[in-house]
Structure formats: structure tokens, C-alpha cells
Amino acid sequence: MRSAFLCGRHHHRVGGLELIAEGPTAIALSRGGARKTYSHTDPNEDCVAFAAGPGGQLVVAADGHHGELGSEAAVRSILETVAESWTASESPVASRDDWRQRAIDALIGANRAILQIAGKTQLPPAPTTFVLALVRPQEDLLLHLSVGDSHVFAVDQSGALELGGRDPQWKFTPFLGYEEARAEMFEKYALMGERSLEDLRAIVLATDGLSEPGIGVEDPAQSVYGVVSKIEVDAPADRRATDACRAIAETAMRAHRRQKAGDNMGCSVIWLGP
Question: Could you give phi then psi for residue 169, rounded to 5 degrees?
């Protein structure tokens, strides 16, 4: 398995952008295009990662609140506990129906990791929103899961479909990092699903630096779709994941500068199209 991990503690320069790509997978992280105008604990509380193995690719993005340690612990938990088996040549599950339980177990593990790092540092838990996508082409599988208001977009020829985010009917935004979190909570408040890869051009994860009102873009799904459509025409096949990831992050950062209000921005891309 090959993997890469960008965490906010290493990326504090306003306007800076770090990007790592390998084949059809890319991740990008920035402190943001402008300084935050809201109360916060650390300059950059977002993290992104990818893992690639013989069976598929996995991407993750996390947006920490009240500290960088929550998002970092959640993403590291995924890389260290499930990424290798989920991207292995042989599927870790007997049937597609088993993926939901694997997803819940992974969320419970990530939640536990946040609480453990809080205990070690004697700091309050730093809750985080969290999104993950797994692509296994030989099984025609996209697995996606989301806790909170970060985004998972499945992009095809007609648009970018939001698979993550939060239900607007909820009166709160769910997070990883709650001491009372149990499987029942994730069954109720995590958005999880699996679908075919047919006709998909790209999977895009983004933290809410892309979408926060007064900070990000007005229509995040349309912005992502516009970037993917342009990259598909303009970029050579071996650069499409890299260029799409960079362009989506830079789209958010331009919005930050225009509105003179920034937020951390993490983006992860799996390119599926030609």
C-alpha cells in the first residue's frame, strides 16, 4: 500500500497550498486564502490523506474544531487500521452488505482515537467532521461515509452529486470525538452508502472551506462540476487528479480572498474518467 497524509499542524502559511498526487489520486491542503475571522484554536485544523493498494483507492478529509489533534487522530486511525485491508487485492468483506458494518466500526475506531489523544495530552476532545470514499474498481464499488458538514461529491457527465454533508433537518452538526458516541449514533447521524462506479468521472472530498457561507463559494457542487469538466478537456490523462485537486482548492481560496474571510481547505480526489 502507498499512502500520503497532510495534516494542518505543518501548513500554517496563509495562501499556501501543499499537494501530493499519485496516479489517479491526489490530496491538497491549505490554511486558506485569507485569515480566519472567527474564533479558533489552531491556525489549520484540517487533514487529508489517501491510500492506494492493488484493489483500490481510499481518500479521507477531516475538519477539526477546537484544535488540530482531533482531525489528525481520526485520519491517522483510518490509515493505520483499515486502509491496507480496504485497498488490498482481495476484498475484506464477504458481500457488499458487510461494508456498512465495516464503515461503522471504522468510525468508532476514529472516534476512540480522538478521545485517546485528548487523554494523553490532557486537553478537551477536539471534535471533527469526517468524510471518506473508497473505490474498488474490480468490484464496481464506491463506498462513502460522512459525519458532519464536509463534502463527498460523485461527479458524472450531468453534475456533482453531494453524498456527504449534514441533513438540514438536524438541529446540530454531528462530529467524531463525542464520549457518548456509539454504533447507534452513527447509524442515525452518519451518511453511509455504496454505489456503482458506472459513468462516474471523479470522486471529490472537500472540507467546508469550500462552502462556508461568507467564506467559500456560493454553489459548491456546481463549482466542483465546473472544475472537473474543464480539467477533463484541458489536462492530460495522467494529470487530471492532480490538476482537479489543485483547482478545487484554489477555487475556495479565491473565494476567501474575495470575501476577506478565510477557512482551512482540504481536498481529496480520485479520478475515474478517461
Answer: -75, -20
Give how far Cα 126 sits from Cα of 51, 112, 165, Å.
24, 12, 19
Domains and CATH numbers, the chain: 2-271 (3.60.40.10)
pLDDT digits 0-9 by tens, 211-268: 999 999 999 999 999 999 999 999 999 999 999 999 999 999 999 999 999 999 999 9
Kindly give, in sequence order, each residue whose CB lies less than 8 Å from that of residue 264, ignoring residues fewer than 6 positions away: 8, 29, 30, 31, 32, 44, 45, 46, 63, 207, 209
pLDDT digits (tens, 9 = 90+) for 139-163: 999 999 999 999 999 999 999 999 9
**Angle between the 99-121 and 69-81 helix axes, to the nearest 10 degrees?**
130
Q: Is the pTM of the predicted complex or chain greater than 0.90? A: yes
Contact present, 194 and 96 (Cβ < 8 Å): yes
The values of phi and psi at residue 154, to 5°, are -105, 115
Q: Decide if 50 contacts 267 (C-beta within 8 A).
A: no
Close Cβ partners of 260 (under 8 Å, ≥ 6 residues apart): 34, 37
